[in-house]
Amino acid sequence: MNLCVKNLHVTIGKENILNGINLTIPSGEVHAIMGPNGSGKSTLAMVLAGSSNYNIKSGSILLNNKELIHMSPNERASEGLFLAFQNPIEIPGVNNAYFLRTIIKAHKKYNKMSIVDITSLIESYMLKLGISSDFLKRDVNDCFSGGEKKRNEIIQMMILEPKFSILDEIDSGLDIDALKFVSISIGNFLKTNPSSSILLVTHYSRLFKYIKPVKIHILIGGKIVTSGDMNLVKQLETKGYQHIS
Amino acid sequence: MLSRKNEILQKVNKSIDYKYGFVSDVQENFFPVGLNRNIVKQISLIKKEPQWLLDFRLKAFSHVERLLKIQKFPEWPELDMPNINYNSICYYVSPKDTPKDLNDVDPEILKTYEKLGIPITEQKKLSGIAVDAVFDSVSIATTFKKELETYGVIFSSFSEAVTSHPELVKKYLGKVIPYQDNFYSALNSAVFSDGSFCFIPKNTRCPMELSTYFRINAANTGQFERTLIVAEENSYVSYLEGCTAPMRDENQLHAAIVEIIALQNSHVKYSTVQNWYPGDKNGLGGILNYVTKRGLCIGHYSKISWIQVEVGSAITWKYPSVILKGDYSTGEFYSIAVTNNYQQADTGTKMIHIGKNSSSTIISKGISSGYSQNSYRGMVKILKNAYNSKNYSQCDSLILGNKCGGHTFPVISSHNNSVQVEHEASTSKLSEEKIFYCQQRGLSREDAVNMIIHGFCKSVLNNLPMEFAVEARKLLELTIEDIIF
Fold first, then answer.
1. Which of A70, A199, B125, B300 could cross-link B326 (Cys pair, CB 3.0–4.6 Å)?
2. Domain residue limits, chain B
3. Of residues B439, B456, B458, nearest to A74 (C-beta)
4. Model ipTM?
């Protein structure tokens, strides 16, 4: 059992955003969460990663049977949780190569690796993702195009090899070619990390052409109203969210 | 991870108290407390100064008296300046025996510099940096003098320069900052004790970094030093200045003057890491740092760059400026000012464009926290013959906490229509979003904050000479850790 969310209630101020989420994602599986705007998809992603902007009223988040609820975001990260942000944050003045080296070095698996080896590790993944070399000279996500930002998230995921990744609208802002590139990379990641699991948060099913989730959860009003396989997506595409219950 | 945490903890514990706050037990001669004509004469006498210099001092002193009578001090800064009783300050303090050379220097003083990490003894001399060490009112030692002389570079204490190169001192003293400029410059001109003098001859690239290290040790005194830097045609010099002082409950005044003259096609780079005692957590004590710094780009294609990292002092009042007189001359001002607790900083620059095609760049980064107030105050003035001049200003404030202030007071005045002036400013809080992003990737909160703040300051830090950049980064890191964690 990899990720297990039980009865998660979350508020911002007085507003209830998540109203009792129950979700289990076994290791090695890809799941997807779909839902209309404002249904709480991104909140769920942020809460799982440990953002302090939300109040957790009750519930539990277990990763490999370890409770994450009281852990800091970096403790969760070292437990193997990764969030690819919907809007990756820009950090002007911080060189991207320096940032990548620092987070890689902070990772248990790499903390004995030399700077030279870390740099060549980064470069090998850049090649795989079709990222040009000036990417390392620029500042973290600063003046990156939408597609570049998403690739920057994926390269980090591929190098850090998390046990559980949340990809929040990884397909938004990508053109068709870039989408293909990113999707294939995620596919390769799953092949080399067969026990890793992924939660895709998305509006559209176009991503599923390349990465096939075994289970799709529909989130409406802060609750998972139904779960199913790819047939659910077909149903959704013809009828919309209103007819799902 | 754990060892990294310990490392941070150790650093924090070390820096909770001002690291340089110790007092050295040195036998010193004190002049009687008070400010009067006689004191001014005494200072001049003890230094065996020529008549013209005494006259300069006395003229300045008359101006001080006039200003004191009408109580005219700079009133425009965004500062709450305490009243200073100028008659309760001792204006001249020197170690008992004036040392002839390094072997002669009081071991306590040498120990002081060792503790501060400043290399002045023969064994400790860092290759690549020549140091002039100013202890209270006098210069203790200047290293690498002989080596520099072979290049024609003069680097000595101010007093020594008055004796050995009176013609140069006389030619340039007070030419960039007249004593009438403001109250503190008048006071300094009357009672200045020592400082550094630096002269780079024609067609010479100074082979090493020059630096002056200022230390206030004695209580109840002020430090009034002057630095004069002259760069002749086609020369280059990079100059560094560092400052520390003991912890005391009383405010101490530091009113310095730095004048730079850059002749045709020369470049002077002046960097400061200012870490005077800032006062305690409740705002008690600390140095009042009222400093006038100005450079004159007198020749065509000359360039003056000011780079400052300001983390100390109870109050900082300081505007390193450039008068761009030569055509195609360049002025630069890069500044990081960090304030915490009850510190106040009002700092910035003036760029006065007189020559054609002159250009200036201003990059200012203010970080405020605690109950502190941090202001950027700047003026870009373009006179009517400064055709095709350019200025670019960027002033960013970062606010840590809810009880501090970050302010920007830019003035742009242009009297020529062919010029290009740009001003960008931003004020932001330390973004939780950015911290969260870094933490999500496995960095601790401390490391995340350090990384973001270094990023905020990078465009200034990158301009520091390499030897200084490491120290400045470390100082910044420790200061920020004190503030946040």
1. B300
2. 2-484
3. B439
4. 0.95
